[in-house]
DNA sequence: AATTTGTCGAGACTTGATGTCTCGATAAAT
DNA sequence: ATTTATCGAGACATCAAGTCTCGACAAATT
């Protein structure tokens, strides 16, 4: 009863060029057209591959998109660690906001929309967003370990506030996603962590910035 | 060239029982099953009507759901006005959170998901959420007019923080929507408003601010 | 009462996307 | 040289959306 790890992979190996072409075609089409007009057939045609080559590796067209977005997301994975919560939080929020623009924002909307339709895509989406959540959580918990307070809700609430505002603006388009909007959010959340439980006659001065 | 208003409706009239049965069946199915498993055929079967009866009155199954939710949404929540931002904000957030539970939460997820796919549904969704935004904005601006500060981001950011956290948790299910979670969020946002803005000299003061 | 008009439930039908299966060709490990 | 798994390609079944038609039925009109 040989386990799969007992022998090497034999036979023809996976074509990396085809994989890249499929990912690129999916990103291109989901960014340009309404999601309803993107089909496995159109992606296969643009990538110059057979449909079966797609079905062999991805269960749905949205799984292709999620894999592509995961690769694109590796660029912003850097964890800020300057020793100060103020600087780290602003760096994280600014970097995250600046990464969310066309064409990425269209892709995010498509995937989040589909996640509400398909439980499997929803699970993939929880995992996808969880990676960014983990980065922010690390920043917050490191600050807490240093002795910096996180305010009434702790790290859990702060994480949901950052990504809540971000996703809310992505999905409904009601508010800005500019760098200044990012700074504004970071500043507001920092104020939240620093505020005293009652109107303060004295406040702690902000470290390192004015 | 007779206008439509020139004569009365002749012929058999629309069956109100069928309309109600269709709306109820749509709500029931969208609340119970994944949206992908809900079809016009299943709604028609549960309602005991022909498919053509549905297509005659609604363009898509989501139009049925939107009409049903519009009827459900007629319960207008009163605008809290106690004279204190702390009490009003907690009342609003608690009431809003407590209204978002099964089966409503499933319907909200379905409609928000479809809004990312259909621009027309998206517009309706912006309008739908805008009504609740307006209530919170009124609470915040009244507090500001009283002289209570709203913190670095002002009313715009606070509104997005409340509904951002709410929708983020609805869509991804990562955090709680309990009454205690609502109180926690309200408390955190209040802490944020109590922080003093330090570069106050560079800022144009808002009217009514201390 | 008879006629006209529009809705009713039901089913046949077209269209298009999904997903499976098979085929011969090809490339890598044995 | 053989084995094994991928490749592009196409046939095929399945399913939901949407259109069209049918006889039955109900309300307004004549």
Q: What oligomeric assembly is this protein in?
A: homodimer
Kindly name the structural category of chain A: mainly alpha
> What's the CATH class label of the largest domain in chain A?
Mainly Alpha
Number of separate strands of chain A? 0
How many structural domains of chain A? 2
Describe this structure in words.
2 copies of one chain form a homodimer. Chain A is mainly alpha-helical and 210 residues long. Chain A has helices spanning 16-32, 40-47, 51-57, 61-73, 85-99, 104-115, 119-146, 154-172, 179-194. Chain A contains 9 helices and no strands. Chain A folds into 2 domains: 15-57, Orthogonal Bundle (Arc Repressor Mutant, subunit A); 70-194, Tetracycline Repressor, domain 2. Helix content of chain A is 64%, strand content 0%. Chain A is elongated. Chains A and B meet through helix 6, helix 7, helix 8 and helix 9 of A and helix 6, helix 7, helix 8 and helix 9 of B. The first copy, chain A, binds a DNA duplex (30 and 30 nucleotides) through helix 2 and helix 3.
């Amino acid at each position: 009863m040989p386990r799969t790890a007992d022998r090497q992979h034999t036979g023809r190996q996976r074509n990396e060029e085809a994989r890249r072409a499929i990912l690129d075609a999916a990103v291109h089409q989901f960014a340009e057209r309404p999601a309803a007009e993107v089909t496995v057939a159109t992606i296969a045609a643009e990538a110059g591959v057979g449909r079966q080559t797609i079905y062999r590796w991805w269960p749905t067209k949205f799984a292709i998109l999620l894999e592509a977005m995961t690769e694109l997301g590796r660029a912003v994975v850097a964890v800020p660690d300057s020793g100060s919560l103020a600087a780290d939080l602003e760096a994280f929020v600014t970097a995250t906001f600046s990464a969310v623009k066309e064409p990425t924002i269209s892709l995010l909307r498509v995937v989040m929309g589909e996640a509400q339709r398909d439980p499997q895509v929803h699970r993939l989406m929880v995992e996808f967003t969880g990676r960014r959540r983990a980065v922010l959580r690390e920043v917050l918990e490191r600050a807490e370990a240093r002795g910096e307070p996180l305010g009434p809700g702790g790290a859990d609430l702060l994480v949901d506030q950052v990504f809540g505002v971000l996703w809310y603006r992505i999905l409904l388009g009601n508010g800005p996603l500019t760098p200044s909007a990012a700074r504004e959010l970071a500043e507001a959340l920092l104020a939240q962590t620093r505020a005293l439980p009652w109107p303060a006659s004295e406040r702690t001065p902000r470290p390192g910035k004015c």
